[in-house]
Specification:
The structure holds two protein chains of two kinds. By secondary structure, chain A is mostly helical. Chain A has one domain. The model of chain A has no long low-confidence stretch (mean pLDDT 85). Chain B has one domain. Chain B is globular. Classes of the chains: A mainly alpha, B mainly alpha.
């Protein structure tokens, strides 16, 4: 069985397992609840204060929506890494090491929860809404750029999860500051980039390329005066970031000593 | 006193546990301050560059008060229901180990309530001094947490925050009851968490919500968790209002504890243990 079909088999098992709970319709209600509520605080601020400079609610929501969707995809398809420190702490990771398959893919498929679809749905709705309200006419290349932006963002966020897991080999406990680069990072996208303190903008451009995968493609597609070339950067940035993360992961696994059962 | 002993030792155990992973404490601190900073930036941007800059003041909340609100949320963060459930109890219910908990000669609701309270206060005290120091002394001016509006306001705030914390444990108790219905999954608990996050004013001061909803927002149970106590600190509510705030808080506390306890007795009577 090749690795990818193994991964999708994991997802299918997790999915069917989830359906065993009678409450799964309630879970879906929960999903839509999250989806509606997530951007509500900013929208309330916009409705009270009006636009910020040239930034209207719909412009901000495009950047935010792109970041949110890519994070959502990462949570949906790489959730195993998100909950990974627990595996280390309980010693469950030893079981994974015993199996003659890629540890990376096994951890990736460890968990799959449909309720993580919430951010994806919410993000895509925001992107769509924003593009319609702004009246942007999309060419084929623009659509491609937006898709690449989501793919790049997905790789970046998966990279963050992988790095967090690699660190967990040493700290055992989950490392909370990683939230800065997961849930925290797309909160940053709620603030128009030009109003961000410079060090914050640089951190999320060069260190963890969240703005590269959200603001730049958004600016290129809507024509906010950014060089069109920048719109193609998300995918290479994502690949590079995930590559570094995987290197850290390999390094960490090599020195792993079990914590016992 | 004899009755309280087990609860005191649960308390001690969890405080020691919270202190155990010092690296984790540092990590939480960094994250906490980062979130506070990003939220302050957001407030500043809207108060300074919003087309209707005056809107915040019209809502009765000045920029300084809004910034203080943000930091107080960060300080009191661990008193909130938060993730509602500690992972250990979730895992116990999922794996069936909850049967073990039932063997203890303690009321399960009281046990889990104490546990929730101990965890919350433990984490709160760990974060209290460092976050306050950073927010009040180290940050430059527009980002800074302001001192309380008055001395009486500070006392009223502390007392009311404590009531809010108890209410938050009552909500946690309720979510354990929901979780004990294993077949429901954690959908209901997630919904409860989302609602309490939003309506407690942790995301955004409730005063900045639309004007027509204000009375409703102040009366709903989640405002008692955090938003009402914070108003006593920032001075948008006078210290003399404390008694009416406390009355609302107590009413919700009694209601949620009562319902939680009763429902738990009900679900323990036909508890489904899964796993083996």
């Amino acid at each position: 069985m090749n690795e990818f079909s193994l991964y999708f088999r994991y997802l299918r098992l997790n999915f069917l397992g989830g359906l065993q709970y009678q409450g799964w319709p309630l879970q879906m209600v929960g999903v839509f609840f999250t989806a509606i509520i997530d951007p509500i605080a900013v929208l309330i601020l916009f409705s009270r204060f009006g636009a910020v400079g040239s930034w209207t609610a719909d412009r901000v929501m495009l950047v935010y929506g792109l970041a949110l969707t890519s994070f959502g995809f990462a949570e949906l398809f790489s959730r195993g890494f998100d909950t990974f420190p627990w595996q280390i702490r309980t010693g469950a990771f030893d079981r994974i090491l015993l199996r003659p398959r890629s540890t990376f893919l096994q951890v990736l498929g460890l968990r799959f929860q449909l309720n993580r679809l919430a951010r994806v749905v919410s993000g895509l709705c925001l992107v769509g809404w924003s593009l319609v309200v702004q009246g942007v006419s999309l060419s084929f290349w623009h659509i491609l750029q937006l898709l690449f932006a989501l793919a790049g963002g997905y790789l970046v966020y998966t990279g963050v999860f992988v790095i967090a897991s690699a660190i967990a080999f040493w700290t055992i406990e989950a490392v909370d500051w990683i939230y800065i680069f997961t849930n925290g990072s797309y909160q940053v996208a709620k603030v128009p980039p030009e109003f961000l303190p410079p060090w914050l903008r640089r951190t999320f451009t060069f260190f963890m390329p969240m703005l590269v995968c959200s603001y730049w493609p958004a600016a290129v597609v809507c024509g906010w005066g950014v060089s069109p070339l920048l719109g193609w950067l998300p995918l290479p940035a994502g690949v590079a970031f995930l590559g570094l993360a995987l290197a850290a992961w390999r390094l960490a696994i090599r020195q792993y000593a079990s914590t016992g059962s | 006193m004899e009755l309280l002993r087990p609860f005191l030792s649960i308390w001690r155990m969890h405080l020691a546990n919270a202190l155990q992973y010092r690296a984790a404490v540092w990590a939480q601190l960094t994250t906490n301050i980062f979130w506070g900073f990003v939220r302050t930036v957001m407030m500043l941007v809207f108060y300074r560059y919003g087309l209707q800059q005056i809107a915040g003041y019209e809502a009765g909340l000045s920029l300084a008060q809004a910034v203080s609100h943000v930091w107080l949320v960060q300080i009191a963060l661990h008193l909130l229901p938060g993730n509602l459930i500690d992972a250990e109890i979730r895992e116990k219910i999922r794996s069936g180990d909850v049967a073990l908990e039932l063997c203890r000669p303690l009321d399960l609701y009281a046990h889990w309530f104490t546990r929730a309270l101990a965890m919350r206060l433990g984490r709160f005290f760990l974060q209290l001094i460092p976050v306050t120091t950073v927010a009040m002394l180290l940050l430059p001016m527009p980002y800074r947490l302001q001192p309380p509006a008055s001395c009486a306001g500070l006392f009223a705030f502390c007392a009311s925050l404590l009531l809010g914390c108890l209410l938050s444990c009552a909500l946690v108790g309720l979510s354990y009851v929901l979780l004990l219905r294993v077949s429901w999954g954690d959908g209901p608990v997630i919904i409860l968490k989302i609602i309490s996050d939003l309506l407690s004013g942790a995301e955004l001061p409730l005063q900045l919500w639309p004007a027509w909803a204000q009375r409703l927002l102040a009366a709903q149970p989640f405002a008692s968790l955090l938003d009402l106590p914070l108003r006593l600190y920032t001075g948008t509510l006078a210290p003399s209002e404390f008694w009416s705030v406390a009355a609302i808080q107590l009413a919700w506390l009694v209601l949620f504890m009562g319902v939680g306890w009763l429902l738990m007795q009900g679900s323990l009577r036909r508890l489904l243990i899964q796993g083996g």
